[in-house]
Amino acid sequence: MAPRRTKVYEGKAKILYEGPEPGTLIQYFKDDATAFNAQKKDVIEGKGVLNNRLSEFFMSGLNAIGVPTHFIRRLNMREQLIRSVEMIPLEVVVRNYAAGSISKRLGIEEGTALPRPIVEFYYKDDALGDPMVSEEHIIAFGWASQQDLDDMVALGLRVNDFMSGVMMGVGIRLVDFKIEIGRIWENDYQRLVVADEISPDSCRLWDIETGRKLDKDVFRRDLGNLADAYTEVARRLGVLPRNANNVTKPTLIN
Ligand SMILES: Nc1ncnc2c1ncn2[C@@H]1O[C@H](COP(=O)(O)OP(=O)(O)OP(=O)(O)O)[C@@H](O)[C@H]1O
Ligand SMILES: [Mg+2]
């Protein structure tokens, strides 16, 4: 029997284990869904399998067009090998259409096209409810440098271009999304890479024809079966075989 792996971190949606070589981690996708800063919780059977596949799909696509990510390769149904990075404690949100907090805060009707993609930063702190912060706050408190900020905006916009195009190709509107970014050190030189996950947990995805929501809002707003929505996204992207009807009862092969 292989020795039990060392758990590095357990979050709400994923577990990180030590990887097989220095500088790597194994990211395990759980079925747990949380919303509203974990006040709403449930287990959605199959969600972890879908997000593992979808994050692989988006991250490997980004790697292929030269947008650096932490993704190395998928290991099995629920796990992927990633590069260990020093996380920047910010969430980078890119919005193409108004929805969620921007609609509430600024009184813009959900679905309104924004004049251009808008990049926002949120400070990752569950106790504070991940508050929105300005570039001034970020620099003053030393969460990132001005150079990092410029790089983060550029990364966010490149991810937006890629993701918008891919989703549009399968009849889905990328309303907004969130990424997390980390630093990789190469000697004294640092490079920023897209880390964490890119999945329907971290995007707003609306069917272009019908407006049907295909993202975590299905869970937040009790709009139906979350796994069905994610399965639809995966099917359209060709990430799952078209006749896969058993994704909610996966066999985990380690
Ligand atoms: N490549 C990476 N290297 C190191 N840490 C990473 C990497 N990618 C993601 N992480 C971190 O791993 C954790 C993933 O777990 P999960 O998303 O479940 O956390 P969470 O419950 O959302 O909590 P948090 O508030 O820490 O994000 C997150 O803290 C995320 O920032
Ligand atoms: Mg998270």
Automatic annotation (TrEMBL):
UniProt keyword annotations, A-Z: ATP-binding, Ligase, Nucleotide-binding, Purine biosynthesis
InterPro entries attached to this UniProt entry: SAICAR_synt/ADE2_N, SAICAR_synt_PurC, SAICAR_synth, SAICAR_synthetase, SAICAR_synthetase_CS
Annotated SAICAR synthetase/ADE2 N-terminal domain residues: 7-236
Gene3D superfamilies hit by this protein: ATP-grasp fold, B domain, Phosphorylase Kinase, domain 1
Pathway in which the depicted protein is active: Purine metabolism; IMP biosynthesis via de novo pathway; 5-amino-1-(5-phospho-D-ribosyl)imidazole-4-carboxamide from 5-amino-1-(5-phospho-D-ribosyl)imidazole-4-carboxylate: step 1/2
Source species, domain of life: Bacteria
One function term, GO molecular function aspect: phosphoribosylaminoimidazolesuccinocarboxamide synthase activity
Enzymatic reactions: 5-amino-1-(5-phospho-D-ribosyl)imidazole-4-carboxylate + L-aspartate + ATP = (2S)-2-[5-amino-1-(5-phospho-beta-D-ribosyl)imidazole-4-carboxamido]succinate + ADP + phosphate + 2 H(+)
EC number per UniProt: 6.3.2.6
Similarity comment text for this entry: Belongs to the SAICAR synthetase family.
NCBIfam families hit by this protein: purC (TIGR00081)
UniProt name for this protein: Phosphoribosylaminoimidazole-succinocarboxamide synthase
Protein source organism: Plastorhodobacter daqingensis
